[in-house]
From TrEMBL:
It is an enzyme of class 2 (transferase). One of its GO terms (biological process) is negative regulation of apoptotic process. The keyword Protease does not apply. Keywords: ATP-binding, Autophagy, Cytoplasm, Kinase, Magnesium, Membrane, Metal-binding, Mitochondrion, Mitochondrion inner membrane, Mitochondrion outer membrane, Nucleotide-binding, Phosphoprotein, Serine/threonine-protein kinase, Transferase, Transit peptide, Transmembrane, Transmembrane helix. It is found in: Cytoplasm, Cytosol; Mitochondrion inner membrane; Mitochondrion outer membrane. GO terms for molecular function: ATP binding; metal ion binding; protein serine/threonine kinase activity. Belongs to the protein kinase superfamily. Signal peptide: none annotated. This is Serine/threonine-protein kinase PINK1, mitochondrial. GO terms for cellular component: cytosol; endoplasmic reticulum; mitochondrial inner membrane; mitochondrial outer membrane.
Amino acid sequence: MSVKHALSRGLELGRSLVQLGLFKPAGRVAAKLRGERLRVSRPTRTVQPQTFLPGRYRFFRLSLSGLAAQLQSGAFRRVAGGGAPRNRAVFLAFGVGLGLIEQQLEEDRTSAALCQEIQTVFRKKKFQTPLKPFTSGYKLEDYVIGKQIGKGCNAAVYEAAAPSGAPVENGKYSLVELNQKETDDDYKKAGPLRFPATPSFPLAIKMMWNIGADSSSDAILRSMSMELVPACPQALTKEQGEIALDGHFGLVPKRLSAHPNVITVYRAFTAEVPLLPGAQEEYPDVLPARLNPQGLGSNRTMFLVIKNYPCTLRQYLEVCVPNRMQASLMLLQLLEGVDHLCKQGIAHRDLKSDNVLLEFDRAGCPRLVITDFGCCLAEDLGLKLPFDSRWVNRGGNTCLMAPEVATAVPGPGVMIDYSKADVWAVGAIAYELFSQPNPFYSSQGLEGRTYQEEQLPPLPAAVPDAVQLVMKLLLRRNTRKRPSARVAANMLHISLWGKRVLAGLTGARMNELTDWLLCQSAVVLLKGRGSGGSSVEAELQRCFLANIDLEDLHTALSFLMYGHEQWKSLP
Ligand SMILES: Nc1ncnc2c1ncn2[C@@H]1O[C@H](COP(=O)(O)OP(=O)(O)OP(=O)(O)O)[C@@H](O)[C@H]1O
């Protein structure tokens, strides 16, 4: 940049400071400057220095304030009138600074536009649940129910299928055709593992226990409404949907859009509680009096139809030791799932390895989905919960409760912010993924309320550096220093597939990053055409590109660059 140009940029800044009211020139200078504007990013728009500079130009922002102070003390007047050399130097330096900012902004604009284009390409193809369109399945009689496959505090889960001879309405398919082929193939590829998924029962029916609400559909749907958060648009019949979606009582949950790492509820309906296998022995107390005279349950309840998965994450980890790559991909999937929830203003609040279901892709890589939304927060207020009394429910899982939730003290005006609570739980679950004991289960001794970051157990050296860093950052007590799920996911994406960008990080230029993004896009598009299209890896890469945002990407890069230092310098 020439000296002349630098000075003219400095003068332009002076004009903008006049506009901002930071400098009040008089006489000849005032006349020269009056009414003129600083144009930085777009020729048609006035940009104010304090607002147009994003976080990473903090240095220049500081220079701006310093210079503003100089100008207020009258230095500018002297420069404009011929000027002392010292002041010329200040303006020159500042002009150069501005020039650099402009250059950076120009690069950013190009990269932001590129990110936007990439996002558009990868968002066009919306994730489809593997359910073919069908119109039946709203009654218990539409299904054949097999054996019990699980039980929690609120429900029993059974394998299920629609009878193969089920009526095919209007040329549409019956439930039994739910991606049967994929299920069979995936099952075969699970290698030596024989988890008890029965391909002939591609579905699971979760029968909620109704002990509070009466037997009307209205009462049931309202009291169990959170279970409907991951329900697909066709899950309820029109009439049921109207009950559940009527906002009259303010209990209407938000609905999540489909995502590869979040369960989809295909159907939800109410029906009379049947006597299913094991009911009398395993949950007699929650049965209705009709089935057990001592039972406390209501006569009707809600049923959810979901895909039948071979096992939960906890069951899988009890018998398998995933390799580094598989464990990293599982962590990434949990982060992608949580990012999807956050973006839609939903906090799960009960993340644990029992609430993550697992199947295998064609290559035998575990594919995870977050399930059981019974405790989630899905209010219009977003991820903030007014905590004005100790009776307010903070969430399901006390062991994996983030410090900001566990330490909240109820009182007037107190709000709990859940925006980074789920991602904290993912940080704790990551220990399990890398075959370590979860430090927050009571036998390990740490508590979310009181632990110090230095007390977190070290991870084996075999755990990749970037993963170790992500885990440490996720378990930070201070939410401002904890990355969001998106940023943490970006860190893993870059470390898994962007080694080249990572290697040049010290001098990382924007065009290296954009080159890499373009290559990634091309690779993923090509994979999508080939046989690798449905692999976990390809799904994750698509997810990354569909959510790409320049600021988040930069934050991830700076965490990767400086994260270790910041972590070490913690008191
Ligand atoms: N779609 C499914 N496929 C296979 N097994 C499942 C499925 N859904 C649930 N299960 C099994 O049933 C168990 C109980 O399910 P779930 O966690 O949804 O019930 P819950 O009563 O709401 O649980 P919680 O006690 O956490 O509130 C799970 O831990 C899992 O073992």
